Every structure is written in structure tokens, then in C-alpha cells.
């Protein structure tokens, strides 16, 4: 593939690119990776991928970024495929066969041909030149579904019960092919424009560092799949905090009673077991288009944590506020549909469709005053962009006075607070406001701020 | 221990463990680089089994530290046998305290626990620290110490250093995040659900009586269930259990009745059973 010296250099650039994506790699790991390359040799690219991943990474969340970056620095090949590009119909024929046979190696080769034949645009060498979007648009692999299904059936590959699995299976194979095409297009662009730049710009960040405000539907879906494991981790941390809080005090009477057997010398301090009542939680969530990804995710997370609290109530608003606790409970089985259900079944908008924090807070303080009492911690989720309407500061102040604590989680970066129609600084004077742009920040905040 | 990645695969297979390329590569490197292997992944994907298989092919003794909430130094490293010490003291009434003390803090009264066992002696060993995520965070400090220098200090006896380092495997179900420091000590391996072909081979290996076509269908159904976004996805252990069940029932192929009757072997939550039944059309009669 390359000379040994070239490899060392690639490895260093690869590490650099990973660091730029927030993966923390020390020199020790880099040295290990170099030793791994020495042990494994360069002949088998997939071994190399696994070996380098094992030495550099420390967790599964980094793997997606790693794979994309690895493909750039240790590419499958250079340039285009050996054969000249095939025609569109011919390529679709071969793709249909490969999908029917679930032939991974062939799908990989076809992805290369697809980008080569249909992904190129522009003619000057300076232009970007390769687009997976364009290649997939021309090839339309999703339209092969019926044909592939019939082929498999024709070969007797799906009789009886398993026939009903077939379409889902083919859909998953098509998705995998799309991912291969995307990776190949990235590789080709990188060849032209220099790997380092592409590695920086075109590789998507890990799901937990994904900016809530800029994530597309598919990445939000990916993020939602992390809710349960994240909730489990947070629950253990909260339990630990609770245990620590419960330890502390020494029960003097029981310690002395216990010391009778040791001749009155208090050997074992008896700790008072405190059983604090589990706290109550109220969530006020802006579910308008701009921040709904953030709100949905947070609501699902809190729902998954609900047994940590004696009570959880969730309210959603755009410019009117309505309780959605019930919708959320039923939503556990179908997190994808949560947003749509809230829009359809709750009264969150009035005359117009844009956010109005003043109205929503006012309505909450008025209609649900009893929801936030002295044992309640309130979280407000939103960007505090209130479309130039009255922010209604007294309403928020009133909520803050009644509740035990109020925290505001803002998905916008701090430097944008107060720009345009954002009234974040005014609200931040009344309650603690925290920047919360991605799942990583959210879980850190939740672990720190949730009452135990 | 191994000559190549392929050698790892071949020998693990003889011990009844079918390794993916990623698993074989990482085991090979852990041996060559002499680093502990941290294996993370959902329950039932063969993490514990891997450590056992490595021990078997290496002709090594498996020393296992099973972690749980509250496991501590005295369970993980060593403790003094107090009862025996007391007996010894009361038996030798007329010696001085100093004499007694030197005696009761000697080898004879030491109870070695897995971490200490693993670094003593010259025979080859595999140290399995199983379900590390269940232990409290404080235990990680202890692990880190032992795994850094492979030595343990017993104040009364001095420092014990491994003359032969064990092959170390730590497993975790990721119920909590292990510390960065511990992760850095290790090679990292994530074992997820296997590819269809590998899982089919595992089923054939573990349930040899099962018909080839049925084994294939079994794995396909499990694959479809895993794509359903369930609360708890069926793991390899469940696939194998299901295959055993079908064999015991004498099923020759899958149909709605047999799938509906046995879905509980694969899915542990009622919500999941309902969701899967709907998506697989099990209720349509
Ligand atoms: N790659 C594999 N080769 C052979 N058996 C496997 C493999 N993966 C999983 N198994 C089966 O799955 C069962 C559960 O594995 P186990 O090691 O207990 O899982 P874990 O420790 O990950 O929870 C084992 O008894 C074994 O039958
Ligand atoms: Mg296990």
C-alpha cells in the first residue's frame, strides 16, 4: 500500500484529524497504534482498521468518526475503478443482483463505480467534483426494492414465515449501500482537496457532540437511540449521588449501643440512613420547529429517568402551553412519533405559529401554579427567542419564587444569547441559564443539576 | 501466544468460540503489545466466553474477578484470615507479642483473592475482570494500580511483583462509563451483535441438531427484531436459547404459531413482545 515512512506520517495525520473531532488521544496510544501497524502489516486493510481502532479509541461513540477518517487516510485505492464506467441501467442490474445476494464485497465495488460514473460534476480540476447525493439521485437504489424482492422470491429464498422479513432486510441493505457511496464520494473529494481539510469538514461529529440545532432528521433519530443507554448511565450516577448524600450523618445513639460489645469503645460508627423523599420535576419545553430536536430528546431522556423522581410533569409550548405528560408516557414505545403527536394532540399554538415565551410562561404561572411548589425543580428548555414579543419577566420570577430551583437549558451557543430576538440575558438574570448544545453537555448538566 | 490473526481465529474456533475479524485482531494485539483488553458490549454477546476461550487455547488458568456493587480490596486483592490468626494467637499463650505478630502476618494466614492470585506464580494465567462496570468507581483505582505495574504491596509482607504477566480481559456492559484512565491502559474492543453469517455459524455450533434452513430463519428473525428499536434487543445468548427451544419443540420450520408461542425466549419486556408481534403480523390470523 505505502512505504513504512509514509505510514507513520499518515498515522500522525489520522491522529490529528481525530483530535480535531474531539477524540482524546495521547502519545502513548499513538505509539501503540504504530506498534499495531508493525505487528499486523499493511496487506489487509480491514485488520489494520480494527487494530488501529483498538489502540486509539476508548469507547464505541468514537467509532463512526474513526471509520470515516480512517477511510480518508488509508483509502481503499487511489483514483477510479479499473473498468470503465458502466451505463446506468447496467449498473442498476448489477446492483439489484448484489442486493438480492447480499454480496457485501460486490456492493463495495459497485459503490465505487457509482460515484465514478454518476457522482462527478464540474469539469475544472479545482471544483469539488464528487457528490454522493448526485450519484444516488441518478441510481435511485431505493426503487430497486420490488425487483430485488421478486428475485429473492423467485430463487425460493423467502418462503413461508420469513417472507415477511424480506422487505425490511432489503431496505437495510440499500441503506448500507448508500453509506458506502457516501464514503467513496468523501474519499474522492479528499483526493482532490487534501485529506486534512475534508477530515475536518466533511466527517460528521459523533452523535453526542452533534449540535441539536443543526442536526438533520437521520442524526436526530440516531441520537434518540442513545436515550436508553444514556438514561441508564445517568441513573447509576444519580443513585451514587443519592447514596453519598444519604451517608454522611453518624447516628450517635446506635453507634454507642453497638459499642457495648467492645467494652464501650465505639468501633463502628453507625451511619444514619436518611430516606429523602424523591424530588419532583417539571419540564417546560419549547417545541417550535427551531428547537424541537433538543426538546424531544430531553423529554425522552427525562421520561426514561422517570423512576428517579416521585413525580414528573412535562409541559410543551410554542405560544400556548399544554401538559403532555400523558403523551410522553405512551410515547415510550414510539419515540420517533413524539414530536408529531405533541403537535397534533396538545394545544401548543394559538393564532400564529411562532414562539412566544411571554405568553407561555404567563399561562403556566396562571393555569398550573400548583405544578411548581417548594419541592419541585423546574427545567425550562428553549432558545429564549421570543419573536420580539413581551418576555413577561414577572411570570418567570413568580415561577422561580415558588419552585425549589429553576434551571434554563439553552441550546444556542452562549455568544449568540441576546442577539436578534433572543431575550436570554434578561431571563438569565432571574434563573440560572446553561448552554446546552449537544447530548454530551446535556448529560453532564443533567448529572449535575438534577436533584437527588 | 499466537502466530497471526488467522491463528487466533482458528484456535478460538477449536475452543468453541467463533471470533469476528475485529475480535481476532484485537486479541492478537493484546497478546503482542502486552496490554489488557477491555471488551465492552451488550449482555450476551460472548464477552465472558471470549476470555474463557482464550484461557483454554493458551493452556492458561482462568482467574476470575466477578465485580458487583460493593466489591472491595479484601474481595479483589487479599485479606488476612482473621479467624485463623485468632486461633494461632490463643494457641501460643506464652510467646511474646512480637513473635506472634511476625508469625500471623505470614503467607500461611494470607487469603489471596483474584488480583493477587493472577500475578503470583509462574504458570500462564488469564485474568478475567468481569462486569467491571458493576463495581464502584473506587475499585477502578485499585485495578489501575495493579494493571500498571503488575505488582501489589502487602505492608506486612512487602511488594509482590509478577514474574509472568497474565493476559488480562476486562468486560463491561457499559451500564456506567469506566474512567478515562482505566480505558487508556487498555486496548478497546466493542463487541456488538454479529453479522448474519457469523451468528448463523454460532447457532450451528451451539445447537448442532438444528436444521440448516431453520438456523438461517432463526438468525433472520432475530436480525429483524434488532432493527425494531426495542427496549431490549435479543442478544446472541437469546438466539442460541431460541434455537435450543425450537429444537426441543421439534419445529421443522417457522410459522406464526410457533413464533408467537416462543417469542418470550427472545424478548423480555411485554412492550417489546407487543411491538414485535404487531410488526411481524403475528396477530393476523
Ligand atoms: N462468538 C461466539 N462464539 C461462540 N459462542 C458465542 C459467541 N458469542 C456468544 N456466544 C454464546 O452466547 C452466550 C453468552 O455469552 P457470554 O459470554 O455469557 O456473554 P456476555 O459475557 O457478553 O454477557 C455463550 O454461552 C455462548 O453460547
Ligand atoms: Mg458476561
UniProtKB/TrEMBL annotation, chain B:
<dbReference type="InterPro" id="IPR050764">
    <property type="entry name" value="CbbQ/NirQ/NorQ/GpvN"/>
</dbReference>
<dbReference type="InterPro" id="IPR027417">
    <property type="entry name" value="P-loop_NTPase"/>
</dbReference>
<protein>
    <submittedName>
        <fullName>MoxR family ATPase</fullName>
    </submittedName>
</protein>
<dbReference type="Pfam" id="PF00004">
    <property type="entry name" value="AAA"/>
</dbReference>
<feature type="domain" description="AAA+ ATPase">
    <location>
        <begin position="33"/>
        <end position="197"/>
    </location>
</feature>
<dbReference type="InterPro" id="IPR003959">
    <property type="entry name" value="ATPase_AAA_core"/>
</dbReference>
<dbReference type="InterPro" id="IPR003593">
    <property type="entry name" value="AAA+_ATPase"/>
</dbReference>
